[in-house]
Design brief:
- There is one protein chain.
- By secondary structure, this protein is of the alpha+beta class.
- It folds into two domains: 139 residues, Fructose-1,6-Bisphosphatase, Chain A, domain 1 (2-Layer Sandwich); 125 residues, D-Maltodextrin-Binding Protein, domain 2, CATH 3.40.190.
- Helices cover 37% and strands 26% of the residues.
- The chain contains nine helices and 15 strands.
- The strands form three sheets. It has an eight-stranded mixed sheet with strand order 4-3-5-6-7-8-9-10, with helices on both faces. The protein has a five-stranded mixed sheet with strand order 12-11-13-15-14, sandwiched between helices. Strands 1-2 form a two-stranded antiparallel ribbon.
- The structure holds D-MYO-inositol-1-phosphate and calcium ion (2 copies).
- One calcium ion binds next to strand 5.
Length: 277
């Protein structure tokens, strides 16, 4: 068993260096640098360059660890530790020249998140968290907001563009939350959305069918900042199911009453990928 503190410096350093790669390429993409993985699902040469660099740094420090990275997939079934890497969260923003994107890196051990970083490249904001150590923004502790009423809350979300059959249930939830909250944002990087919940800029966030590398770091961040993360029914399945409600405890309780009405039957992304949903 490793001392957990050794993970965070590798993660932070990898995110910073990957961020430099992304910053250099931002606004300079040529048409040959952008490809489509699916409908509306971009990947760029910079996603690949960032991921390659992150993996090389992790392999150098932890050669026996497993890796799940968005663009190159997962390696091996054995090994107790697994790194979750999103080399560029917010690729659609990046492609459109919207300066709101991040690098997200987490490590888990038997389903327990051991460290997580989210680096908002253009604002040079490094969010980080370790179990029991709290959540940090550029080295300073952050907490979730203490806003109590949903009617005062600013919520973030992401659209189910990879799960279009669920758009009806999503829009019902959106409408319900829209009518009862103070504001709604769709910013385009789930990792930053979760980090913003952790530091109190957002009071809550929800999205369905995210992947472990989108949310691993952000889930730890929110919990370490005093917030709650669950699926739409309140269960602790988010890392695998990708169904996320994250908020300060009071707003989480109020959001769950609404997501439970509209989204309780939505399967997890794990079930969709396995073809069992
Ligand atoms: C996406 C972003 C976006 C969320 C999508 C994710 P990507 O990640 O996090 O905010 O709504 O569901 O897939 O594709 O830019 O790494
Ligand atoms: Ca992502
Ligand atoms: Ca990505």
């Amino acid at each position: 068993m490793h001392d957990p503190h050794i993970f965070i410096s590798t993660a932070r350093n990898a995110a910073l260096e990957a961020g430099e790669i992304l910053r250099d390429g931002f606004g300079r993409l040529k048409s040959g640098d952008v490809a489509l993985k699916g409908f509306g699902d971009y990947v760029t040469a910079m996603d690949h360059a960032s991921e390659k660099h992150i993996i090389s740094l992790i392999r150098r420090d932890f050669p026996d660890h497993r890796i799940m990275a968005e663009e190159s997939g997962s390696d091996g079934d054995t090994g107790e530790y697994r790194w979750l890497i999103d080399p560029l969260d917010g690729t659609a923003n990046y492609v459109h020249g919207i300066p709101f994107y991040s690098v997200s890196i987490a490590i888990e051990h038997g389903g327990r998140l051991m460290a997580g970083v989210v680096y908002h490249v253009e604002l040079n904001e490094m969010f980080s968290a370790e179990p029991g150590q709290g959540a940090m923004l550029n080295g300073e502790p952050v907490r979730v907001s203490d806003r109590k009423g949903l009617d005062k809350a600013m919520l973030g979300t992401g659209f189910p563009w990879r799960s279009k059959p669920y758009i009806g249930a999503y829009m019902d939830t959106f409408q319900h939350l829209f009518m009862q909250s103070a504001g709604m944002r769709r910013m385009g990087s789930a990792a930053i959305d979760l980090s913003y919940v952790a530091c109190g800029r957002l009071d809550g966030f929800w999205e369905m069918h995210l992947r472990p590398y989108d949310i691993g770091a952000g889930i730890l961040m929110v919990r370490e900042a005093g917030g709650v993360v669950s699926d739409f029914n309140g269960a602790d399945t988010s890392l695998a199911s990708g169904n996320v409600v994250a908020a300060n405890p009071e707003i989480h309780r109020q959001m769950l009453e609404i997501t439970g009405q509209h989204l309780s039957d939505v399967p997890g992304v794990d079930a969709i990928q396995a073809g069992t949903a």
